[in-house]
Amino acid sequence: MAAFASGAGIDLLIAAKKVDPTGHVIGIDMTDEMIDKARQNIDSSGWNKVEVRRGLIEETWEVANETPWARTFI
Q: Taking a C-beta distance cutoff of 8 angstroms, is the pair 27, 9 a contact?
């Protein structure tokens, strides 16, 4: 699952609870401040199937091509 404009990562943590045990969640945001905050929240949660990347929505559609499991977008 991929989340665009993922902000502080709260939606990522909710999504991580919804994906199956082998699932993975990627958050994409354009600001370093939000990426840092999301990483803090992810680290605090203990989830290891969540990651955050920096990028613009317009430039990150290749996520679907590079990761065959990224078929759901929020």
A: yes
